[in-house]
Design brief:
37% of the residues lie in helices and 13% in strands. It is built from eleven helices and eight strands. Strands 1-2-3-4-5-6-7-8 form an eight-stranded mixed β-sheet, sandwiched between helices. The protein is globular.
Length: 300
C-alpha cells in the first residue's frame, strides 16, 4: 500500500457548507468535476461556495487511464435545459468566477462547442458580473468549433496538456500533445483578449527537464496561466503514481514558469486545474485586455 506523504493530507471539510452546495447541485440536476473526478479539494472548494461544473456528462467518450470519470461510448443526447439550470446555480451560489468544463464528446460533430456557447450566454444573462472560465477538450482539432466557443466570449480558455509529450501514448492515448498546443496557439490568434490556461500532472515518471520543456512549449503557444499538481491514483485500476513530488520542487517549477513569462503559475501538490481559479480576477485587473465583438478568421 502506497502511503501518501504528509503534504498531501487534506483537512476534513465543514460538511454543513458542503451540504448546501450539494443541495443546489442536486436540486438543479447538475454535475461537478469535483465529485465525478474525485478531486481531493472538494471540501475546501465547496466550503467556499465554489464548484467546477461538468456539462454534457457525467460519462466521457474517452477512457484515459488516469481519470476517474466514467467511460461511455454512446452518451446521452445533449440536454438543452442544462445551460439555464447551470446559470441558475451560478446565480444562487453568487459566484464571482465560475469554471465550466465538460467530458469529451467525440460523438458530437462539434465536440459539444454549441453547448459551451449556450452555457456562456445563459450565465451572462443570469449573472452578468461573473467571470467565466471554460475548460475544454481538444475538440478533435475542429477549429470551427473552437471559434464557436471563443465567439461566446469566455474570460479564460483553459485546455489541459495533462502530461509531457513522452508519456502521451500511455497517459492520454486518444489525445495528441501537438494538437493540444495547437488549440492554445489558435485560441490566442483567434481571440487575443482571452486569457489562455493549461495544466499538467506530475508524478507519472516525468523528469524536471521534461516538465520545463512543456512550460517552454506552452509559452511558445503564448499560454498565460499554468497549473501543476500531483497526480493521485483514483483506484487500483488506474495508472499508478511513480513519484510523490515535494513541495519544494513544485515551488521551483512555479519560479521557473514565472521567469519565462507566464502571467501566473499555480504549482503545489494539491493544485488542480480549477483550484483557486477565482484568483484570475485579480490577474485580469493587473493585465487588462480589450475584447473584440467577434472573431474573423480564414479557415484552413
Amino acid at each position: 500500500m502506497v502511503v501518501k506523504p504528509e503534504w498531501l493530507r487534506v483537512k476534513a471539510p465543514q460538511w454543513e457548507r458542503v451540504g448546501k452546495v450539494k443541495d443546489i447541485l442536486r436540486d438543479l440536476g447538475l454535475n461537478t468535476v469535483c465529485e465525478e473526478a474525485s478531486c481531493p479539494n472538494i471540501g475546501e472548494c465547496f466550503n467556499h461556495g465554489t464548484a467546477t461544473f461538468l456539462i454534457m456528462g457525467p460519462a466521457c467518450t474517452r477512457a484515459c487511464p488516469y481519470c476517474d470519470i466514467d467511460f461511455e461510448k454512446k452518451p446521452q443526447p445533449l440536454d438543452l435545459t442544462e445551460p439555464d439550470r447551470l446559470a441558475e446555480a451560478v446565480r444562487r451560489m453568487r459566484l464571482n468566477h465560475v469554471v465550466v468544463t465538460s467530458v469529451n464528446r467525440d460523438d458530437l460533430p462539434d465536440g459539444g462547442a454549441s453547448q459551451f456557447d449556450r452555457c456562456i450566454h445563459a450565465i451572462r444573462t443570469a449573472s452578468p458580473g461573473t467571470t467565466i472560465e471554460v475548460l475544454i477538450p481538444d475538440l478533435c482539432a475542429n477549429w470551427n468549433a473552437l471559434e464557436t466557443i471563443l465567439n461566446a466570449h469566455p474570460d479564460v480558455l483553459n485546455h489541459n496538456t495533462e502530461t509531457i509529450a513522452r508519456l502521451y501514448r500511455r497517459v492520454r492515448p486518444q489525445g495528441d500533445y501537438r494538437r493540444s498546443l495547437e488549440l492554445l496557439r489558435r485560441s490566442r490568434e483567434l481571440a487575443p483578449w482571452v486569457y489562455t490556461k493549461s495544466g499538467i500532472m506530475a508524478g507519472l515518471g516525468e523528469t524536471d527537464e521534461e516538465v520545463k520543456q512543456v512550460m517552454h512549449d506552452l509559452r511558445q503557444a503564448d499560454c498565460d496561466i499554468l497549473t501543476i499538481g500531483q497526480y493521485l491514483q483514483p483506484s487500483q485500476k488506474h495508472l499508478g503514481v511513480q513519484d510523490f513530488i515535494t513541495p519544494e520542487q513544485f515551488d521551483s517549477w512555479r519560479d521557473y514558469g514565472e521567469s519565462i513569462g507566464f502571467l501566473q503559475v499555480v504549482s503545489s501538490p494539491l493544485t488542480r486545474s480549477s483550484y483557486h481559479a477565482e484568483q484570475v480576477r485579480a490577474l485580469m485587473e493587473r493585465h487588462p485586455r480589450q475584447k473584440t465583438l467577434s472573431i474573423a478568421v480564414n479557415h484552413e
